[in-house]
Design brief:
The protein is of the alpha/beta class. The chain has helices at residues 115-118, 175-182, 200-204, 210-227, 243-251, 270-273, 294-297, 326-337, 357-374; strands at 2-3, 6-9, 18-19, 27-33, 39-45, 48-55, 58-64, 69-75, 87-92, 95-103, 106-109, 126-132, 138-144, 155-159, 186-191, 231-241, 260-264, 312-317, 342-347. A hairpin with a 5-residue loop joins strand 12 and strand 13 (138-144).
Length: 376
């Protein structure tokens, strides 16, 4: 049995579950069992991942993909008499997801999907970076450079907090960051407190503190990029979707350092969100909104709209059940009423992120136009 940061076992005839990973400095994200009874777990270790095997009730590292990550754990034949073949889906910043087969303790990629298209595109460097926030919190992130990056030159900069928030970015070919880097941006994806891959304490640190602890972690990524000489402090921007959309809308109520911001499907009013999302997010705050409304309005961007000076683009699906569309509409309406610079685009029939290709294209057209206008 798997929980976000623990692997448990229980005897086949019943009994008390036992936590086999009480001090896991990572997150066990996926568990599979093959026809021969081997149990495999995909484990995030920060922005990298590995596949471990359960041996003597403990996780033992089995496979790694150099410079990249796994999209899923091993797929094995489900007939016990079949040949013992383990197949993985692997990716890295220079290659799309492809199939790799295990040979002993090494992996060999056997497909080359997307190679012909990628051969026509110049891609910049991607690497993991580490820094400490002003609070002394050790943080990790992924930085993506434009293809023409030259050391010593300052670039327009985008900080891109991931969704979830119980998730993490990984070293892979990332569509969003590659498109933004193609626009000339250096993009940094910070793994803020609340992310998977760093153990239980890190994961649970944002309980009732999403709007302050995670916010400070994300904003420290911008401090780091400026200190490295990468980011032009006069050309800072921010983009996030879902929980990253919350972080974006919340950030522009707290600071005016960003010249433009884009939030997609973000939570802007926690008080009403708690009972209207298809996933009630009690892991962020288990208090009753009607009994303690201030606990939820304190971190709601719609309640602090007077502080916003950053031009904010809001993108939202009209059929979103995860973060209902009214969340974006409420923030848009109050910003517009206050005379703030804002725009909202709603995608008909779209769930939490558009599934129609033309709508996905439009997301990037809207973002590119917003950045060109407000962070040229």
């Amino acid at each position: 049995m798997l929980t976000p940061d623990h692997l448990w076992t229980v005897a086949a005839n019943g009994g008390t579950p036992v936590d086999r990973t009480p001090k896991l400095e990572g997150s066990a994200l996926q568990l599979t069992v093959d026809a021969k009874g081997n149990a495999w777990a995909t484990v995030a270790r920060g922005v990298h991942s590995e596949v471990d095997v359960v041996h003597d009730n403990h996780l033992v590292p089995a496979y790694k993909w150099p410079e990249g990550t796994f999209n899923n754990g091993p797929i094995s034949p489900q007939i016990a008499s079949a040949p013992e073949v383990r197949v993985f889906t692997v990716t890295d910043p220079q290659h799309a997801s492809n199939v790799a087969v295990a040979h002993s303790d090494t992996l060999q990629r056997i497909t080359n999907e997307g190679e012909d298209q990628l051969a026509k595109i110049a891609l910049g460097e991607v690497r993991a970076v580490h820094w400490k926030s002003k609070e002394g919190i050790a943080l990790e992130g992924i930085v993506t450079f434009p293809e023409d990056y030259a050391p010593g030159r300052k670039y327009p900069f985008m900080v891109e907090p991931h969704g979830g928030p119980e998730a993490n970015d990984s070293i892979r070919l990332d569509t969003f960051t590659r498109i933004f880097a193609g626009m000339g941006y250096i993009v940094l994806q910070p793994q803020y407190r609340g992310s998977t891959g760093y153990g239980t304490d890190f994961l649970n640190a944002i309980y009732q503190h999403f709007g302050d602890r995670a916010y400070r972690d994300v904003d420290s990524a911008t401090d780091y990029a400026i200190a490295q000489g990468w980011a032009d402090p006069n050309r800072l921007t921010m983009f996030g979707w879902s929980a990253g959309g919350f972080m974006t809308s919340w950030t522009v109520t707290q600071t005016s350092r960003y010249k433009a911001a884009i939030e997609g499907a973000g939570i802007t009013d926690w008080l009403s969100f708690m009972w209207t999302s298809d996933v009630q997010q009690f892991d962020y705050d288990a208090r009753w909104p009607d009994k303690d409304p201030a606990a939820f309005t304190d971190f709601s961007a719609a309640m602090h709209s007077e502080n916003v000076s950053t031009p904010l683009l809001i993108l939202h699906g009209a059929a979103d059940e995860r973060v209902p569309t009214y969340q974006g509409r409420e923030l848009f309406e109050v910003l517009a009423a206050r005379g703030k610079t804002t725009r909202m685009v709603t995608y008909p029939g779209s769930p939490h992120f558009p599934t129609v290709w033309e709508q996905r294209q439009d997301v990037f057209r809207e973002i590119a136009a917003w950045l060109a206008k407000y962070n040229p």
